[in-house]
Specification:
single chain, about 500 residues, alpha+beta, 8-stranded mixed β-sheet, about 25% strand, Probable malate:quinone oxidoreductase, FAD/NAD-bd_sf
């Protein structure tokens, strides 16, 4: 490990100074905070959260799918080519990333830096499709993945009785004349990212990191010495404002990160825009019903739907209680955060992103049509969608909840002018003094590899001295488990044992 030295030292009158400021109290800031504290214990870190608790936006368990995205069941990560062949590369990459997150979490549990792993539970992951064409695709997907180490336990069936054993609620009352096909992966998980975030933040506090609530960052400005001045407004005490100087600044504020990235003025942030999509879910908290379903069942996305809108019937564990969740249904509001302002979208418009956003919008008219269709749905039509996956569902047993806001990234593109970017986008300045994270799924599940990439990009001169500790935290760091079967067995069985998710 590198000598425990300050990132830098200076004193400025009327300014508070610190080494690192993390904006946003979600899984990303919490993960980066723990990682930096493990690599440089002497650095002073301040975490600023605009609400009165951490993990109340995208990391809140009711605001995300909690799937533990490992591409075992998400069909959009394994597209079929025009000739019917299925590519495994994207799914493999996402699974590898999730294995990195699992290793990091397991090490923290093993070193007693997280008190337990009750925020992760074993829940098999399934894909379920209907009709001959989709069944043919799922069979081709299964064939493509058979040779991949990380997917070797995945099973495939077109037998209704076998599928009934895997997920009884999906088959009871189903029309037997409609062909069905399913894949089933026993190593799937459900993750309560809200509880995990709180655990990570509790550890940070125990290490002397200050977490400040009700603190809204209103502006960020780079100084001549490359440090950043962060203007902060106290939302809990009107008129109370402050300024912090930090050498490194991370904008991990979910949908709120785009505005701050724009205010930073860095050239790497030019041309980025965001399009907000609201999420709605149907929730059933009847434990008797939840006990009849132990799976995360993902289907095929509707035409024009973004990847995060793939329908799924999930077993969820939130605060230790089991329930069912179905959705998502899309909506549209112009706020970038669930507890944000309806002016967020218009305020994000800039001369440098107007053209890319218009081009991306024109090239994705099917998304617009999809959103209009979703907005026209009522409770009855939502329950009809639910019954495609749970034929005997009783509408009155399900309540409609509003999930988090997702801001789809739009960015400039040399060839198309502008593109809609699904997934997450890590943006950092050339001098490594600031980084921002935009985007959505698979997000939280891949927080650890994303933050490792950030560390490598922003601190290249320190990375080699940090690498030994990184390899303690992530034992297979830099290695693809899918290409190393023996190591994969060792790592995956070890993390499963430590996290209590043997399945």
């Amino acid at each position: 490990m590198a000598p425990q030295t300050k990132l830098w030292e200076f004193s400025v009158a009327n300014y508070e100074t610190t080494d690192v400021v993390l904006v946003g109290g979600g899984i990303m800031s919490a993960t980066l905070g723990v990682l930096l504290k493990e690599l440089e214990p002497s650095w002073n870190i301040v975490l600023l959260e605009r609400l009165d608790q951490v993990a109340q936006e995208s990391s809140n368990p009711w605001n995300n799918a909690g799937t533990g995205h490992s591409a075992l069941c998400e069909l959009n990560y394994a597209p079929a080519a025009t000739d019917g062949t299925v590519s495994t590369s994207k799914a493999l990459g996402i699974n590898e990333q999730f294995q990195v997150s699992r290793q990091f979490w397991a090490t923290l549990v093993e070193e007693k830096k997280l008190k337990d792993a009750q925020w992760i539970n074993p829940v098999p992951h399934m894909s379920l499709v209907f009709g001959d064409a989709h069944s043919k695709y799922l069979a081709a997907r299964n064939e493509a993945f058979k040779a991949e180490k990380l997917f070797e336990r995945m099973q495939f069936s077109t037998d209704p009785e076998q599928i009934r054993q895997w997920a009884p609620l999906t088959m009871e009352g189903r029309d037997p004349s409609v062909p069905v096909a399913a894949s089933w992966s026993p190593e799937g998980t459900d993750v309560d990212f809200g509880a995990l975030t709180q655990n990570l933040v509790n550890y940070l506090v125990s290490q002397g990191i200050e977490v400040r609530y009700g603190q809204e960052v209103t502006n960020v400005t780079q100084e001549s010495d490359k440090s950043w001045t962060i203007n902060v407004q106290n939302r809990l005490r009107k008129g109370d404002s402050s300024k912090i100087r930090a050498k490194f600044l991370f904008l991990g504020a979910g949908g709120g990160a785009l505005h701050l990235l724009q205010k930073s003025g860095i050239k790497e942030g030019k041309g980025f825009g965001g399009f907000p999509v609201s999420g709605l879910f149907l929730r059933n908290t009847n434990e008797a019903t939840a006990d009849l379903h132990n799976a995360k069942v993902y289907g095929q996305a509707s035409v024009g739907a973004p990847p995060m809108s793939v329908p799924h019937l999930d077993t969820r564990y939130v605060n230790g209680k089991r329930s069912l969740l179905f959705g998502p249904y899309a909506g549209f509001k112009t706020n970038f955060l669930k507890q944000g302002s309806l002016l967020d979208l218009p305020r994000s418009l800039r001369l440098d992103n107007l053209y890319p956003m218009m081009k991306a919008g024109l090239d994705n008219m099917d998304l617009t049509k999809y959103l209009i269709g979703e907005l026209l749905k009522n409770q009855e039509s939502r329950v009809r969608s639910l019954r495609e996956y749970y034929p005997e569902a009783v509408g009155g047993d399900w309540e409609l909840i509003t999930a988090g806001q997702r801001v789809q990234v739009m960015k400039k593109d040399a060839q198309k002018g502008g593109v809609l970017q699904f997934g997450t986008e890590l943006i950092s300045s050339a001098d490594g003094s600031i980084a921002a994270l935009l985007g959505a799924s698979p997000g939280a599940s891949t927080a650890v590899p994303i933050m490792l990439r950030l560390v490598q990009q922003c601190f290249p001169d320190r990375f080699s001295t940090w690498e030994p500790r990184i390899k303690e935290l992530v034992p297979a760091f830099g290695t693809k488990l899918n290409d190393n079967p023996q190591l994969a067995d060792e790592i995956m069985s070890h993390t499963a044992r430590v996290l209590g998710i043997n399945n």
